Amino acid sequence: MKADVNGITIGYDDEGTSDHVLVLVHGHPFDRTMWRPQVEHFSARGWRVITADLRGYGETTVVPGVTPLSTFARDVVGLLDHLGVDRFVLGGLSMGGQIVLEVQRLFGDRVRGLLLADTFAQAETPEGKVVRNEMADRLLREGMSGYADEVLTKMVAPHNVEALPEVAAHVSGMMHNAPPEGAAAALRGRAERPDYTDLLGTIEVPTLVVVGSDDEFTPVRDAEYMHERVPGSTLVVVHGAAHMPNLERPAAFNKALDDLLLQA
């Protein structure tokens, strides 16, 4: 499905008809299909599950330049307004988790519960800003393929690349197919993201922090940092997974999210 929101066209899926709404935000450089196991599981369990391609990814309009997290957040909520959704449980992985925190900052009164998966709350370091902008330049210059091949075994644990070839192929395909202009704009926006540390202590809704035990991009210590600061939050470490535990270990990931949804 597609909707015109905030001057762009957003590609999205909307499964289920319940008043209980779960919204899942994908990471970089992926698209909404990364949530396929969760859409199937939770829509079958009575939830309305909404996933969308972020600006610059998948079937959504590519806008070159710089895309701040606040723009992504307003796109997410703009789509929900279009769909008539007022309150929702919101989850995101990696960059999607940072977008979730930005939605919480801007529209926290609409959020019933939070899932923060394989993400981190701190602002970018000066060195990190340089790295992200250099990577954006590289993607525009070379395209996605070299980067996608290099990071596959960090996105998906090497043993899972061997044991779960369909998952590895799915993750690789999303990265190879991501529009370089959209991915570069997101990288430049994330380089300027705010520090959400103070926000963490103000969160009052049920919150689940999930991380793969083998995640190199956002290690377990980043998840512990958030868990320690969000009052009453739950931390789940998914063993045998790297940066994509929802695809590498969907049963364990879904069980943790099931538990959150019982509270939200």
UniProtKB/TrEMBL annotation:
InterPro entries tied to this protein: AB_hydrolase_1, AB_hydrolase_fold, AB_hydrolase_sf, Epox_hydrolase-like
Domain AB hydrolase-1: residue ranges: 21-250
Example GO molecular function: hydrolase activity
Pfam families: Abhydrolase_1
Keywords associated with the record: Hydrolase
Residue ranges that the Swiss-Prot or TrEMBL entry lists as coiled coil: none
Cited PANTHER family: MONOACYLGLYCEROL LIPASE
Name the UniProt record assigns to this protein: Hydrolase
Species assigned in the record: Lentzea guizhouensis
